[in-house]
Amino acid sequence: MRTAAVSWRLCRLPALLCGQFGAHPPPPLRAFSCSQTTAAVWECFAVKSSADTQQQTNCSGHPQNSRVMPSNVEIKAKVSDATRFAERAAQLSQSEGTIIRQCDTFFNCSRGRLKLRDFMNESGQLIFYERPDTDGPKLSRYSISATSDPPGLRAVLSDALGVKGEVRKERRLFMIGQTRVHLDAVEGLGDYMELEVVMRPDQTVEEGQQVAEDLMEKLGVSKESLVTGAYMDLILKGHKEA
Known about the structure:
Elements: H1 2-18, H2 34-44, E1 47-49, E2 53-57, E3 63-68, E4 71-78, H3 82-93, E5 98-107, E6 113-118, E7 124-130, E8 138-147, H4 150-161, E9 163-176, E10 179-186, E11 190-198, H5 205-218, H6 231-241
Antiparallel strand pairs: 1-2, 2-3, 4-8, 4-11, 5-6, 5-9, 6-7, 7-8, 9-10, 10-11
């Protein structure tokens, strides 16, 4: 009977944390073997995840919540005339843009990319994202978590995963409709632009790509200037060629 009571408490612990048990009395006690107790405990903490959704199950195996990763359609290109690009972006957005200074630290990970973005003002974001390394419009899925201690988080992730590299840039952000337009002065690379079409739930990838291509034409971005990969990839490639 003591074993049964312990088993029930172990299964009840995560449920208490999730608010599944209120003032309800415990279920009738049953005898469990040691192996059954262990299996019951692991079932309570079962977690399933994929690139698009994450679900947590309770002791009964029913999903508690699910989350679809938000997505962007993105374009990146080299900018030959930053002043001219800024003028066009300012005209389309009817604003002078917002200056943001960023230091991105990329960490080793088995899939996708994981980076810590430090805004240099005691705030930052931990960002995981996946997107194909192709030129032109491409779908990017991402997850973001804010932090008020970028240096401390960087230290922990560096010890755990190892650092792939660092990207420092001064970003000028323009909002044009549902699209974030970035004019980036990247340390060691030069001037680049990024378009991020923030997808609505009812939009298809093709619709997002069309928005990006139309805006690319209005900003005077040629297909020949398109680049693939992240700034980190470009920096590492340049280091290898040097």
